[in-house]
Amino acid sequence: MGPGGGLPTRPRPPPTAPDRPRPPPTAPDRAETLLAWLRLIDEAGLDVPVWCVTSRAVATGPHDTDVDAATAGVWGLGRVAALERPATWAGLIDLPPSPDETTRRRLAAVLTGAAGPEDQIAVRGNSLLGRRLARTVLAPAATSPLSGTVLITGGTGALGGHVARRIAARGTAVLVLVSRHGMEAPGAAELVCELETLGADVRVVAADAADRPAMAFTEFTDYRHRVFSVHDGMIYSMPINLGIICSYFGRALSPTEARALIRTQAPEGLDTGTLEGKAVSSIGRPLYEAFIRNYTAKQWQTDPLELPGETIGRLPVRYTFDSRFSRIPTKDFRSTATRLG
Ligand SMILES: NC(=O)c1ccc[n+]([C@@H]2O[C@H](COP(=O)([O-])OP(=O)(O)OC[C@H]3O[C@@H](n4cnc5c(N)ncnc54)[C@H](OP(=O)(O)O)[C@@H]3O)[C@@H](O)[C@H]2O)c1
Q: Do 103 and 35 share a domain, yes or no?
């Protein structure tokens, strides 16, 4: 529907199973349905202005707060559509859940352009409300400690780190910072150090927030797995990390220097299909011989030359001082597996 014109040719609705009754869209489906419609309109080459009508997507004030967060996502997508396809995007209109005759008249005024050029409108009673920025009064910052586990996606980024510092300053049981690079993210080691100094128990998890199974793990027991390795009369705390590399080579190395050193010890052209080949190509022969060969032989009762290369992926190698292993989720493994589907 466009403000000035008639109804465009109706595009095909998004495909559904033929004889199956269609359930009402679930929350995430609403934005996906709008996306499907936009794609269909593009595919059909229709050059028509598109309005999107919602209900309970926006709040208009302190007395109008009945918002469905998922429907609000439709407005999020609509604003992206407005930026990306301005020629064919008309706008967003939010109606009360039970539209009456007044609502219908107001809606008609918007669609025919009689209500002016606003493109994000809420119809409430006799009023048409346009989207505006308004000053807000900040509530006093909370200071009481949080309990349980706090998971922060993007936790190693600028804002995530800032949020983590504020939470840590309040005192909390466990902070889980999630980002795709995890401890490899720039500044992650320093951030962890700072948070731990504030008294927080910090875990940095390398995971993609779009990976739902990975996101199912949010609470952990207090159990800390520790592995120590004895080499040449010295005790090292596994897994291989910057601490082990510095101690083993007897030098204080930065992460960059450690990587450069390891690169000189990792010959090219190895068969990385076996655990031994892959391990030597990533950490070099000396560290492999000292810490991996006997360990894997004991752990899997198999010669590392007979283990597949990807098995080494189960043993972390870090260029930070983090020596912690993954923790155990509070739910038992059966329910975890169920959640993973
Ligand atoms: N900084 C501001 O002033 C500001 C203002 C308004 C809005 N924002 C928005 O707020 C968000 C954070 O801003 P920022 O300044 O903190 O950005 P940032 O420093 O780039 O941090 C983004 C964080 O998100 C992580 N990340 C990105 N994609 C991810 C994914 N798929 N799964 C898990 N982690 C992911 C990044 O780490 P990896 O790359 O390792 O995954 C990084 O830790 C952004 O969406 C930004 O647009 C920021």
A: yes
Helix (H) or strand (E) run with residue 283 in it: helix 275-283
Predicted confidence at residue 5, as pLDDT, reads: 31
Average pLDDT over residues 110-121: 92
Q: Whose CA is closest to 319, among 225, 154, 181?
A: 181
What CATH number does the domain containing 269 carry? 1.10.3110
What stretch of H or E contains 130? strand 127-130
Taking the model in full, what pTM does it have? Answer: 0.45
**Shortest-distance atom of ligand 1 to CA 184:** 40
For 67, the enclosing helix (H) or strand (E) is none
The CA distance from 170 to 142, in Å, is: 8
Supply the range of the domain harboring residue 291.
227-314
Whether the CB of 235 sits within 6 Å of ligand 1: no
Residue range 47-93, pLDDT digits in tens:
888 999 999 999 998 889 899 988 999 999 999 999 998 988 999 99
* DSSP bridge partners of 282: none
Q: Ligand 1: does its nearest atom lie under 6 Å from the Cβ of 151?
A: no
- Pocket of ligand 1, candidates 162, 165, 175, 179: which has the most ligand atoms within 8 Å of its Cβ, to mutate? 179
117 with 52, same domain: the answer is yes
Nearest-atom index, ligand 1, CA of 155: 43
> 43 with 111, same domain?
yes
205 lines ligand 1 (CB under 6 A): no
User: In which element (H, E) is residue 15 found?
Assistant: none
Task: Evaluate: CB of 159 within 6 angstroms of ligand 1.
Answer: yes
Average pLDDT over residues 283-295: 89
pLDDT band, very low/low/confident/very high, at 146 (cuts 50, 70, 90): confident
Same domain, 124 and 39: yes
In a domain, 233, yes or no: yes
Which of the residue ranges 172-176, 194-198, 209-213, 246-250 would you say has the lowest mean pLDDT? 209-213
| 181 in contact with ligand 1, CB cutoff 6 A | yes
Q: Is the CB of 312 under 6 A from ligand 1?
A: no
The total domain count for the chain is 3
